[in-house]
């Protein structure tokens, strides 16, 4: 079984390395794979040195299925891990690997899974796999698909590593691995303002990571160990209260940037909006969870006194985030941006659950994590599909009538939104409900009246959440179908026109400092889709494709399953949570 | 007094000095053909590798060798001027390994400038027409390079003040000449003059501090200075003898002298112009070898001679470190020229190297040296790629790097790796671990403010490193047509060596950690 744990990291890493070894260079705009960019491909070949322009890498076997295969193996390994996991002992780390790596830093290659990390590992492997399935047919413009596959595989190594690590520094290293790949995903394959968004993302999160590192080192300096298992078992023994508070502030500050907690969330809307669909899905589905996972795994169990001192503040910021996120959503004009802000609100519920320091609240947080990963992953997939078809995600330009025009897509959008707003019976409900329940009865030592206020505000937040989602749905999915065509473009080729307008001024430079515009690339492909599929009829783009359906259906199934049978997940997380909070 | 000399201990600098002489003779007597520069380069390389082999052998044996000793006398126990211990060997290894890359860069530069060689460059702009001939004389170049290396290898072994100063000058003086060796190049001459003036002033400042130390303790040997300062508690000094103020002044002056060499703020002004004006191999030499030598001297003086006076110098060094990293990063933010950016970024990196010394913990020197060793590998790699690109585009601005990933994927990936290493992020794990070592030392020493300053600086640094690395992957059709200069084998080897070392340190930083601590 240890081989499986190591394989979870080794398979994507080896897959990425193979891609690197066999890729000499790639055309700038994916000439091999994107039919619509043929006009650009001539220019591409003109400036690639002839030595590199051999057939081996342009016309060679396309990596359509390579990423699917590698991430599929990883997912299979994750499922094997889940199948052989001993659910009777979910509270302790299983399948531990513990080897010295860098003795000079006390850094051990210490991996393992328990009830807290197992669901997240499976979620990560699943979402990465689904992203690759989605990518088989739905490439973000920007080309260079091999590079994208390489980046996503490295990203997967970092994400899984974060959830498997049982050594503080190893956790930190994995936490950092995701930064550079995500930067490039946004900066190379992103939307119009990707340069600024990518830089903002990486600078913000690196600042958080640096502060997190300081907090971890404070813990290490006072306890002399980096072993998370031992530290969690010690429940803060050996660290005076002030040290715990300082360390908690640093660790929580670093994690709160990633989570993100209001007011440290400002990188998120830009990054989510500009990232390509797969980037948004992984960012919302997994990367945000790394922050809250860090709270549940490190900050609260290792620094209980610090957590108790700071928890009221954490709860306050969490409920402000809930309300702020909802209000911001009401004001958004862009679908992706709206979903991004909704993440701020949902992660507010997760943080509120953590702040209660009770088993109920912690379970709520872990449940909310998974539910948010599934639902928001689905939402971003659907929003990406909408943007791909309409050429824009601006609500005013989308117009209404999606249910008439694209019935399947419209229904899926409705389903995802309803799940996200916390309809009972779907996964989104339990995380929010349990978090509020946890706030009703916070851990002893925490001011109960304050948490009752938090609960009330959070409850109001759920109403606001429902308000903005329903408002959006009423504007986009209902109504008459001919609205957007009237005001968004010419009647002859309305959708292509909008796409041109959105895509043409793009300059493919990831950094704001670049001056001269470079050739625009692959602008029309966003709407037309692959040529083997019947092209768009007049104003009626294709509905959901089989690849999209394949990528989305597991998320739908799991959302329903967890909604109807929450014990499926709670039974796994609860023993670990009890163990972490037990000695309190 | 007859001193016995342990030639085994002296072997590395001796080899370098002897090869320097050989190179000069060969240059004078060898028939001048197109192959002469290459031959001289190979001789130089052999010398450097020989010295490196000796250092490695000494490290394997693990003995502490010392020579040029004076016997015990009433003034104190026996004291040696030249000591080969672990610190010396680590510095020697780092300096000589970096020297291998610098020699490779030099070989590429000198063949490029040789009109007789097949892949020679068109005349350098600014060269006076009609005075054809080598723009850079190879013999002198390698001679000066070897002289500087001799000094750099001697410096970490020096354990007396005079030897320290002499070795430091031996590092500095040849570098002035190397900077200006590109004839008819106004920028190079200006850079050399600036470097010369700054360096001479710093030497004067340091000599003043050294003389004060000698005056207070009556000894030039570092060990004896420490003993004197320890047996006379500072409180006792104040009433009768030298006031404590003198000691503070001496410490400040000595630190200031070394601060010039490592380009620490406020003595950093020369770095930008000099790095940009000098040939790229010299810039690499300045940023890695000369800097390593400066740090060797600083660490030796602070941790051997002034070990007991940490509470005087630690706050000074801590403030110096904080200012250095901040100013260096802020200056680097706005740079558009590749070498200038590396110049300011290496100023900032000096700040990170200084930081552990600012808390003066028991492992401070080890942390500094670890960072320095890893920094040397990644920085020299970045310079190697810059040297490669500057062959194609004389301007060498950041915009010339746009789309490098499509023109030269291997070099672009290597440069991206080095830059991300310097920024300290995975996949550049070497840089990340180096930063963790420094952070750990600071946090353990309890200097929280310095840790926060450094954390913010890490973010500042990332901004310009990632901006540069991002450019590599942006298509730039305008730069598509490259002049028909074929690739150069020494440069490719140089990049490969630096890349392999950086990768090795990423996977197993323990290699450095076990050597230093």
UniProtKB/TrEMBL annotation, chain A:
Stated membrane topology is: Multi-pass membrane protein
What residues form the membrane-spanning segments? Answer: 116-135, 147-165, 171-189, 201-222, 242-261, 281-300, 306-327, 339-358, 364-386, 406-430, 450-471
Domain of life from the UniProt record: Bacteria
**Known InterPro entries for this protein?**
NADH_Q_OxRdtase_chainM/4, NADH_UbQ_OxRdtase, ND/Mrp_TM
Instruction: Report the main location listed first in the record.
Output: membrane
User: Sorted alphabetically, which keywords does the UniProt record give?
Assistant: Membrane, Transmembrane, Transmembrane helix
Which Pfam families does the protein's record reference? Proton_antipo_M
The places in or outside the cell where this protein is found are: Endomembrane system; Membrane
Where do the NADH:quinone oxidoreductase/Mrp antiporter transmembrane domain residues begin and end? 165-441
Q: Which family does it belong to?
A: Belongs to the complex I subunit 4 family.
Provide the protein name. NuoM family protein
From TrEMBL, chain B:
Q: Which residues form the NADH:quinone oxidoreductase/Mrp antiporter transmembrane domain?
A: 158-460
Q: Which catalytic reaction applies to this protein?
A: a quinone + NADH + 5 H(+)(in) = a quinol + NAD(+) + 4 H(+)(out)
The first-level EC class reads translocase
Q: Does the keyword Metal-binding apply?
A: no
Its domain of life reads Bacteria
In which compartments does the protein localize?
Answer: Cell membrane; Endomembrane system; Membrane
Regions that span the bilayer: 7-26, 38-57, 87-110, 161-181, 193-214, 244-270, 282-306, 312-332, 339-359, 365-389, 410-434, 446-470, 491-512
- Chief location bin: membrane
Coiled coil regions, renumbered to chain: none
Q: What EC number(s) is this enzyme filed under?
A: 7.1.1.-
Per the record, the similarity remark reads: Belongs to the complex I subunit 2 family.
State its role: NDH-1 shuttles electrons from NADH, via FMN and iron-sulfur (Fe-S) centers, to quinones in the respiratory chain. The immediate electron acceptor for the enzyme in this species is believed to be a menaquinone. Couples the redox reaction to proton translocation (for every two electrons transferred, four hydrogen ions are translocated across the cytoplasmic membrane), and thus conserves the redox energy in a proton gradient.
HAMAP family, alphabetized: NDH1_NuoN_1
Self-association and partners:
NDH-1 is composed of 14 different subunits. Subunits NuoA, H, J, K, L, M, N constitute the membrane sector of the complex.
Q: What is this protein called?
A: NADH-quinone oxidoreductase subunit N
| Organism taxonomic ancestry | Bacteria, Bacillati, Actinomycetota, Actinomycetes, Streptosporangiales
């Amino acid at each position: 079984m240890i081989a499986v744990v190591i394989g979870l990291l080794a398979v994507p890493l080896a897959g990425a390395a193979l891609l690197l070894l066999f890729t000499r260079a790639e055309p700038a705009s994916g000439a091999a794979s994107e039919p619509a960019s043929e006009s650009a491909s001539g220019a591409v070949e003109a400036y690639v040195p002839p030595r590199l322009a051999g057939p081996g890498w342009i016309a060679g076997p396309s990596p359509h299925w390579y990423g699917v295969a590698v991430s599929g193996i990883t997912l299979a390994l994750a499922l094997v891990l889940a199948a052989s996991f001993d659910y009777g002992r979910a509270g302790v780390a299983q399948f531990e690997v513990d080897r010295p790596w860098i003795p000079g830093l006390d850094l051990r290659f210490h991996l393992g899974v328990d009830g807290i990390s197992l669901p997240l590992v499976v979620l990560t492997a699943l979402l990465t796999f689904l992203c690759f399935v989605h990518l088989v047919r739905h490439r973000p413009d920007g080309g260079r698909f091999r590079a994208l596959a390489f980046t996503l595989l490295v990203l997967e190594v970092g994400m899984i590593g974060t959830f498997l690590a049982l050594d503080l520094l190893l956790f930190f290293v994995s936490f950092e691995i995701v930064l550079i790949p995500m930067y490039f995903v946004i900066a190379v394959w992103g939307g119009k303002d990707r340069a600024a968004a990518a830089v903002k993302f990486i600078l913000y999160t690196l600042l958080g990571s640096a502060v997190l590192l300081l907090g971890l080192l404070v813990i290490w300096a006072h306890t002399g160990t980096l072993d998370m298992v031992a530290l969690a078992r010690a429940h803060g023994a050996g660290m005076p209260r002030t040290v715990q508070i300082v360390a908690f502030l640093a660790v929580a500050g670093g994690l709160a940037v990633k989570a993100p907690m209001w007011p440290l969330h400002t990188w998120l809307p830009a990054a989510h909006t500009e990232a390509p669909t797969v980037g948004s899905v992984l960012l919302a589905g997994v990367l945000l969870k790394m922050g809250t996972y860090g709270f549940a795994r490190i900050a609260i169990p290792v620094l209980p006194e610090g957590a108790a001192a700071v928890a009221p503040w954490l709860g306050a910021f969490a409920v402000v985030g809930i309300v702020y996120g909802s209000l911001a959503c009401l004001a958004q004009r862009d679908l992706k941006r709206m979903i991004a802000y909704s993440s701020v609100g949902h992660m507010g519920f997760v943080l509120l659950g953590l702040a209660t320091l009770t088993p109920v609240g912690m379970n709520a947080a872990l449940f909310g994590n998974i539910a948010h990963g599934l639902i928001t992953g689905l939402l971003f997939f659907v929003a990406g599909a909408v943007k791909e078809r309409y050429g824009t995600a601006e609500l005013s330009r989308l117009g209404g009538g999606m249910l008439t025009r694209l019935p399947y897509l419209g229904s899926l959008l409705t389903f995802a939104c309803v799940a996200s707003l916390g309809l009972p019976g779907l996964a989104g409900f339990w995380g929010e409900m349990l978090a509020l329940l946890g706030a009703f009865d916070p851990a002893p030592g925490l001011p109960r009246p304050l948490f009752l206020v938090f609960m009330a505000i959070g409850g109001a937040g759920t109403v606001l959440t429902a308000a903005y989602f329903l408002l959006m749905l009423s504007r986009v999915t209902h109504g008459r179908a001919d609205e957007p065509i009237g005001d968004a473009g010419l009647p002859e080729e309305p959708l292509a026109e909008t796409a041109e307008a959105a895509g043409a001024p793009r300059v493919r430079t990831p950094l704001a400092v670049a001056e001269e515009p470079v050739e625009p690339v692959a602008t029309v492909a966003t709407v037309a889709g692959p040529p083997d599929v019947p092209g768009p009829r007049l104003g009626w783009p294709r509905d959901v494709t089989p690849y999209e359906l394949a990528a989305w259906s597991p998320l739908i199934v799991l959302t329903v399953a967890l909604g109807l049978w929450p014990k499926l997940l709670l039974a796994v997380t609860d023993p670990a949570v009890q163990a972490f909070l037990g000695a309190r | 007094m007859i001193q016995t000399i342990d030639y085994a201990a002296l072997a590395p600098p001796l080899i370098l000095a002897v090869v320097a002489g050989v190179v000069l003779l060969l240059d004078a007597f060898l028939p001048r053909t197109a192959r002469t520069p290459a031959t001289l380069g190979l001789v130089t390389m052999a010398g450097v590798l020989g010295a490196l082999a000796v250092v490695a052998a000494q490290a394997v044996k693990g003995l502490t060798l010392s020579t040029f000793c004076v016997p015990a006398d009433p003034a104190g126990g026996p004291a040696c001027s030249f000591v080969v211990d672990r610190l010396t060997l680590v510095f020697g290894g780092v300096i000589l390994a970096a020297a291998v890359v610098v020699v490779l860069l030099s070989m590429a530069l000198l063949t490029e400038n040789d009109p007789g060689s097949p892949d020679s460059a068109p005349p350098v702009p600014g060269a006076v027409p009609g005075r054809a001939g080598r723009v850079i004389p190879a013999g002198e170049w390698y001679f000066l390079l070897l002289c500087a290396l001799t000094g750099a290898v001697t410096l970490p072994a020096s354990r007396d003040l005079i030897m320290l100063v002499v070795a430091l000058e031996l590092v500095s003086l040849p570098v002035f000449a190397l900077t200006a060796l590109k004839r008819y190049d106004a920028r190079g001459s200006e850079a050399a003059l600036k470097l010369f003036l700054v360096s001479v002033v710093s030497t004067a400042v340091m000599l003043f501090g050294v003389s004060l130390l000698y005056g207070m303790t009556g000894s030039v040997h570092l060990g004896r200075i420490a003993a004197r300062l320890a047996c006379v508690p500072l409180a006792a000094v104040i009433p009768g003898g030298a006031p404590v103020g003198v000691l503070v002044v001496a410490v400040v002056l000595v630190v200031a002298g070394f601060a010039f060499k490592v380009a620490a703020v406020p003595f950093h002004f020369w770095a930008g112009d000099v790095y940009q004006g000098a040939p790229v191999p010299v810039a690499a030499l300045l940023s890695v070898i000369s800097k390593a030598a400066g740090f060797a001297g600083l660490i030796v003086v602070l941790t051997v001679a002034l070990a007991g006076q940490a509470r005087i110098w630690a706050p000074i060094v801590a403030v110096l470190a904080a200012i250095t990293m901040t100013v260096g990063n802020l200056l680097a933010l706005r740079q558009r020229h590749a070498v200038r950016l590396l110049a300011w970024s290496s100023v900032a990196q000096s700040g990170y190297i200084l930081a552990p010394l600012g808390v003066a913990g028991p492992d401070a020197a080890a942390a500094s040296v670890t960072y320095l060793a890893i920094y040397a590998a990644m920085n020299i790699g970045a310079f190697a790629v810059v040297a490669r690109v500057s062959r194609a585009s004389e301007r060498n601005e950041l915009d010339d790097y746009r789309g490098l990933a499509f023109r030269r994927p291997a070099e672009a990936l290597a440069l991206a790796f080095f830059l991300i290493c310097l920024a300290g992020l995975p996949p550049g794990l070497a840089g990340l671990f180096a930063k963790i070592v420094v952070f750990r030392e600071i946090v353990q020493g309890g200097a929280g403010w310095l840790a926060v300053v450094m954390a913010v600086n890490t973010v500042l640094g990332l901004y310009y490193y990632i901006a540069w690395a991002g450019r590599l992957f942006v298509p730039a059709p305008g730069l598509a047509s490259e002049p028909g200069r074929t690739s150069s084998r020494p440069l490719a080897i140089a990049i490969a060596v630096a890349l392999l070392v950086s990768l090795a340190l990423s996977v197993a930083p323990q290699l450095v950690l076990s050597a230093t601590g």
